[in-house]
Write a structure and sequence with these properties.
single chain, 342 residues, seven-stranded parallel sheet, Rossmann fold, globular
Length: 342
């Protein structure tokens, strides 16, 4: 925030007003000191808001009798337009430009199959460059072949997020120039009840589902900060509902949601958002080996009466990663047909 011409928070809001004309050099110094001392704290916002209110009152008083035109010119807040992709607050975006990802660069882990593939396909369609990363090159290749019209905007990095996160991020940055959207989608499970799970299995799930998210976010942070970008984590309804098997999966997804809440607060001052999608039962290749009876037994438990599709999740991802969600951070968007509501 720029307070009376002084950059206090280094954030995206800029005050444009004639306040400079009525604020004494002494007050300017005080704002600067207050801003630096209380940088990033909730208290600093309260103090600075008070300063602004006081100055606004001063400015209003100084304009009395100086003509209607000047008195009407209220201070207003705009987004720093020099930043790519930012639009004016309160501006109306043409309907055909809503949710556009033109100019964005997205890294989607597990982007070659299922939900990750649906997100990647939609992001490409909406104008983003996309890098997909996962272990099986055959799946990456199959996805590439399914979107020939976007070949020049699509990059693929074979790799295991559990061991290769830093390299995956570096390769994505090299391919796209930067990362403005990170989608932590890759995950694994062992599908065993807790009593049968080995420590090594627990660790594998945790490393893939949670520690990799930390490493990916940390590696991508400089790029995300430079772009005032966003992070999207794909959690699971089982993070809140529990499950009959795989304590490690359920625990790691709960941890992922906590991690996202933390990032939302820690990274807000840098303009980086962090949100979660919590899918319910989505028909992807993860369930390829399940018998039909499984799905038939599940559908009555879903109020909307059907399984979710990968596209149901992708549309939610598009919203959360778009500039239209610029004021949304620390949120969890549940996409489960109402399953966890009953
Ligand atoms: N489908 C559902 O009902 C459902 C419900 C709740 C939450 N989710 C979540 O949605 C996300 C996507 O799942 P999905 O249903 O689309 O399943 P999926 O098709 O099996 O997708 C998982 C993807 O992650 C990749 N992956 C797994 N381990 C990896 C690793 N160590 N390194 C790199 N990539 C790895 C897989 O590719 P490789 O095997 O080639 O590496 C695959 O592309 C997951 O986070 C899952 O927990 C799904």
């Amino acid at each position: 925030m720029e307070c009376c011409g002084i950059d206090v928070f280094g954030a995206s809001r800029v005050i444009e007003s004639p306040l400079d004309a009525v604020v004494s050099p002494l007050r300017r110094t005080r704002y600067s000191t207050v801003g630096r001392t209380l940088l990033g704290t909730r208290l600093s916002r309260v103090v600075l808001n008070r300063c602004l209110q006081t100055d606004f009152a001063l400015w209003r008083a100084s304009t009395i009798g100086q003509g209607r035109r000047r008195a009407r010119a209220k201070p207003h807040v705009v987004l720093r337009s020099a930043l790519p992709g930012h639009r004016k607050v309160g501006g109306i975006v043409a309907a055909n430009r809503l949710f556009s990802l033109n100019g964005e660069s997205a890294l989607v882990t597990g982007g070659g199959t299922g939900i990750g593939a649906a997100i990647s396909r939609l992001f490409l369609h909406m104008g983003a460059q996309v890098t997909i990363a996962s272990r099986r090159e055959s799946k990456l290749e199959a996805f590439r072949n399914s979107v020939p019209q976007h070949a020049s905007f699509l990059h693929a990095v074979p790799g295991d997020v559990a061991v290769d996160s830093e390299r995956i991020v570096a390769t994505a940055v090299a391919a796209m120039g930067s990362i403005s959207i990170l989608v932590n989608n890759a995950s694994t499970s062992v599908g065993k009840p807790m009593r049968d799970m080995t420590g090594a299995e627990w660790q594998t799930v945790y490393t893939t589902n949670l520690e990799a998210a930390f490493r990916l976010c940390q590696s991508a942070l400089p790029s995300l900060e430079a772009n005032r970008g966003c992070i999207l984590h794909i959690s699971s309804a089982s993070a809140v509902a529990g499950d009959y098997d795989d304590a490690a999966y359920v625990s790691s997804k709960s941890g992922l949601e906590g991690f996202s809440r933390h990032l939302a607060v820690e990274l807000a001052a840098d303009g980086v958002r962090s949100n979660v999608i919590r899918p319910g039962l989505i028909n992807t290749e993860a369930f390829a080996d399940y018998p039909d009876e499984f799905f038939e037994s599940q559908i009555p438990l879903i109020p909307l009466g059907r399984l979710g599709s990968p596209e149901d999740v992708a549309y939610a991802a598009l919203y959360l990663c778009s500039r239209e969600a610029a004021f949304v951070t620390g949120a969890v968007l549940t996409v489960d047909g109402g399953e966890t509501r009953i």
